[in-house]
Design goal:
The protein has 333 residues and is of the alpha+beta class. The chain is 65% helix and 11% strand. It is rod-shaped and about 125 Å long.
């Protein structure tokens, strides 16, 4: 949609009951659209303004806003529309071809004497197939690099691999949220018996009386694609948990390495303290002052021994205190 004029416009593709394209509009005004398809302005706002996946059921139409698909389904036609300048034209083109094939299944089913699903159900299934296929493809594209980085981190941990893990983790989190919203949109509609009954547009248009609680066909359709979406969400959650577990292990390894470096630094510091303590004693005898052992034959050996003993005692005491601090106990003393 754009605002090149005062009134918003749509780009639309309309399919008839036989699956043929009957209209391609590049400038369908909003007011004309509402009048022709018997909608309310708030119905359009749920599609053109809302970014959340949703399925709305009205008395004579089903409004769908799922990922790259924005559609209006009636009992005898399907309208696919999107904003000008869409970035998902290729995906939508594939969906249009699949929708055209689904809508033309009536002749095939009649030839094989199989029960014919209602027109609106065939259109809805085409939408759900396109959405779930898109989710599966996107998940596989995200899953492979994530698993590869996780396997590489088991062999070696470096900054570049951690950066890649962060990037893929953000992508996976965004995808998981989108997949969850699609699943919840399908779940919300399948849990409402009133909406399920209202989705039988062909029966309502023909005036056919039906049992209100007999929604087996649409329930089975929605349940099958709900399970697919739920499986994608669960797989995404499992992969996110693997990333979090890997991050926790990496943090533990880095903490252990940091503690080892700190321990080494403390040991070197204690050694330097011991040597400094011994040198402190020697420093007194380095002064040009008279003392009682200057002429003694044992003065050098005595002072050297005392300095060495002092350095060893101070260092040993420091190491002993360090070992006491280093001990980690789960239980109390």
């Amino acid at each position: 949609m754009n605002k090149t004029t005062n009134e918003m416009k749509f780009r639309c593709i309309e399919f008839d009951k036989k699956g043929n394209v009957t209209m391609v509009s590049v400038g369908f005004k909003k007011s004309e659209f509402i009048t022709k398809y018997e909608l309310l302005p708030r119905d359009l706002r749920k599609i053109d303004s809302s970014l959340l996946p949703s399925i709305f059921v009205r008395s004579s139409a089903i409004l769908i806003n799922l990922l790259h698909i924005r559609a209006l389904i009636k009992h005898d036609r399907v309208l696919i529309f999107d904003a000008y300048g869409t970035t998902e034209s290729h995906t939508q083109s594939l969906f249009v071809y699949d929708l055209e094939e689904k809508l033309r299944q009536k002749e095939v089913l009649q030839a094989t004497i199989q029960a014919e699903p209602p027109y609106e159900f065939r259109a809805l299934e085409a939408v759900l197939v396109s959405v779930t296929t898109s989710l599966e493809s996107e998940f596989e594209a995200i899953k492979e690099p994530v698993i590869r980085v996780l396997l590489e981190l088991e062999e070696d941990i470096n900054r570049e691999k951690l950066r890649h893990l962060l990037i893929h983790s953000k992508k996976l989190g965004t995808f998981e949220q989108r997949a969850r919203l699609v699943r919840d949109a399908i779940d919300s509609i399948r849990e409402d018996d009133g909406d399920l009954s209202a989705m039988y547009l062909s029966d309502a248009a023909s005036g056919q009386n039906r049992i209100e609680d007999d929604n087996t066909a649409i329930e089975m359709l929605l349940d099958s694609y709900y399970r697919i979406c739920d499986e994608i969400v669960q797989s995404s959650d499992d992969l996110i948990n693997n990333i979090r577990n890997t991050e926790d292990i990496i943090k533990a390894i880095l903490d252990a390495n940091r503690n080892s470096l700190m321990l080494l630094d403390l040991k070197l510091t204690l050694g330097a303290l011991g040597i400094g303590s011994g040198s402190f004693i020697v420093a007194f005898y380095g002064m040009n002052l008279k003392n009682l052992i200057e002429e003694s034959d044992f003065g050098l050996w005595g002072i050297s021994g005392l300095s060495t003993m002092t350095a060893v005692i101070v260092s040993a005491y420091g190491m002993w205190k360090l070992r006491k601090v280093q001990r980690v106990r789960i239980r109390g003393q």
